[in-house]
Amino acid sequence: MTGMLASVATLAEARLVEESGVDIIDLKNPAEGALGALPLAEVVRIVGQLKDRPVSATVGDLPMQPEIVLPAAEAMAATGVDYVKIGFFPGGDRAGVIRGLSALARRGVRLVAVLFGDDAPELGCIEELAAAGFAGAMLDTRDKKKGSLRQACPDDFLRAFVAETRAHGLLCGLAGSLRAADVAPLLALQPDYLGFRGALCGGNRTDALDPEAVLNISRRVRGRASPGTVA
Ligand SMILES: O=C[C@H](O)COP(=O)(O)O
């Protein structure tokens, strides 16, 4: 069954989505880009207050340089989050980053690679990520002004991404400016989770979460939305 990931920026938002039944609470600073990081101390504080829901956190929109990504991933893992999300941005030394992160994975850190649908990622990297010990891979969008993941990628590509991640035993997520109308078509692809921020804030991801919007999306992901619910 597909779960729901909600990206939150504060403890109050984390508590709101926890009470709304969200499956994965994702800590990020939406004001700092697609994968903006919260301060480590804030992540520690929030993690300490949450009871029984897996927590992920992003390390920031970092250049693909091992000397930058590896210490950031190590520091985020030390906060106690369940998953550390690493954005695979264009350029840099991607192979070196994956090689370095494999050491973290071997120590039991659960890493999730975030690939960007608007960068037309090669699915061949999924095998490399699995071999390096990553726990999961997800698609997101890097440019939040260019529309949703489903506008960046045809559903056939999304279907192939889900199949490839599953074939390599990775947790699979789809996200990227998803809206209520995207839920049903994406549930049909059966990813492990769908991720949201913008749709939970009434459209602007740097606004605060709207409890009604969180419930609306949560019900749709769980298949309890009444027909004709406002998208
Ligand atoms: O991981 C989740 C995504 O970053 C959600 O953010 P978005 O819906 O604003 O694209």
UniProtKB/TrEMBL annotation:
Query: Which InterPro entries does the protein's record reference?
Result: 4HFCP_synth
- Could you tell me the EC number(s) of this protein? 4.2.3.153
Q: Which reaction does it catalyse?
A: 2 D-glyceraldehyde 3-phosphate = 4-(hydroxymethyl)-2-furancarboxaldehyde phosphate + phosphate + 2 H2O
Point out the signal peptide segment.
none
Its top-level enzyme class, in one word, is lyase
**Keyword entries, A-Z:** Lyase, Schiff base
Q: Which residues form the active site?
A: K28 (schiff-base intermediate with substrate), K85 (proton acceptor)
Annotated GO MF terms: lyase activity
Q: Does the keyword Acyltransferase apply?
A: no
Q: Pfam families of this UniProt entry?
A: 4HFCP_synth (PF04476)
Query: Function of this protein?
Result: Catalyzes the formation of 4-(hydroxymethyl)-2-furancarboxaldehyde phosphate (4-HFC-P) from two molecules of glyceraldehyde-3-P (GA-3-P).
Protein name in the entry: (5-formylfuran-3-yl)methyl phosphate synthase
